[in-house]
Fold this sequence. Notes:
It is a single chain. Helix content is 44%, strand content 11%. It is of the alpha/beta class. The protein has one domain (28-360): Aldolase class I (TIM Barrel). Strands 1, 2, 3, 4, 5, 7, 9, 10 and 11 form a nine-stranded parallel β-sheet that branches. The chain has a two-stranded parallel sheet with strand order 6-8. Helix 3 packs parallel to helix 10 and helix 9 (212-224) packs parallel to helix 10. The longest helix is centred in the C-terminal third of the chain and has 18 residues, at 253-270. It starts with a helix and ends with a helix. S-adenosyl-L-homocysteine is lined by residues 67-68, 105, 107-108, 138, 140, 160-161, 163, 204, 235-236, 238, 281, 316-317. Residues 67-68, 105, 107-108, 138, 140, 160-161, 163, 204, 235-236, 238, 281, 316-317 line the site of S-adenosyl-L-homocysteine.
Amino acid sequence: MTKTLDQLLTQQSFSREDLIRLLSVKGNDTQKVLDRALQVKAEAVGRKVYLRGLIELSNICAKDCCYCGIRKSNKNVHRYTLSDEEVYAAADFAWQKGFGSLVIQSGELIAPAFTNHIERLLIGIHQRTNAELSITLSCGEQPLEVFKRWHQAGAHRYLLRIESTDRELYYQIHPHNSLHAYEKRIEGLKNLRKAGYQVGTGVMIGLPGQTIENLADDLLFFKSMDLDMIGMGPYIEHAETPLYDRRNLLWPTEERFRMSLLMIAGLRLLMPDINIASSTALETLDPLGRQSGLLAGGNVVMPNLTPVSNRLDYMLYDNKPNLDKDPALSTSSLNEVIEAIGEKICYYEQGNSQHFLKRQG
Length: 361
Ligand code: SAH
């Protein structure tokens, strides 16, 4: 006899078929899955939310990912790199407001000057904030040596999204060349673990041609790699990218949004004690997206601390939100909206991945 959805939801482990079934629910059953994920989150890590102040350091990028608005070939982007003073001001802001951690994200460059730049910022930030902030880097694929140097300089976590674990789909959204090799991406994740980081990855949801089976396999990949944190969200088209040409294949935005919530929920069921971000891209598709992501099992939000004057230039996708907001504004309202849904922001806490701490023993 096939099991009911209720039976499926109370399982401790999930097969590929189970995950496909979870991700295939429709109508009222969607809410059932999300509710169960919230319950599992509450039991495993509590209804707690950790803040990571996001600093979009630079949009200069050597890569040409077919979905990304700041890809190298997009000539309509004004390229910038924040000054050290701007980065430190954002770090000070996060520290003073009680954010436990920062994310430094950037376009991707493999160059000694870039390595040194990040290293200098890591050391500088820790010096002025008493080494109280945990720092995540999201600066792309780098050689193991560079990962090690940055870890040594005080980066604790690293986010390198695999984007899609399906090799074929991966090459539909990336140029097929050595700079964008699928195997290198996976090796990068393994090297991050070797270098001692809390390791994070993620995928985009609702890519042209992506199937529910692909998404179930993405979740299984996260589990098999024993990852500590995941950031994933809906794919949102950008008019100045090659993937825009395939927009006729996309699911409607409501469906991409719903599937993103189901992915967060499915992941929480599969890996109860990891950190899961409620992504900015969710907010792009729905003004309440951030809250919805938390109610589906997410426990991390990333308020944007990039100076407002640079935000327009870090357009990964069209209609990215909060472009006009001052960082102070977007964080004061945050507490209210998060408490209103029954979650609690943990100020002055780094919010390390429980999963990582347990592995460390
Ligand atoms: N260069 C770094 C990080 C910058 S991009 C790196 O490659 O790791 C950060 C993330 O934004 C990417 O990993 C991707 O998943 C997401 N992103 C980029 N373009 C997007 C789009 N069009 N829609 C949704 N997410 C996108």
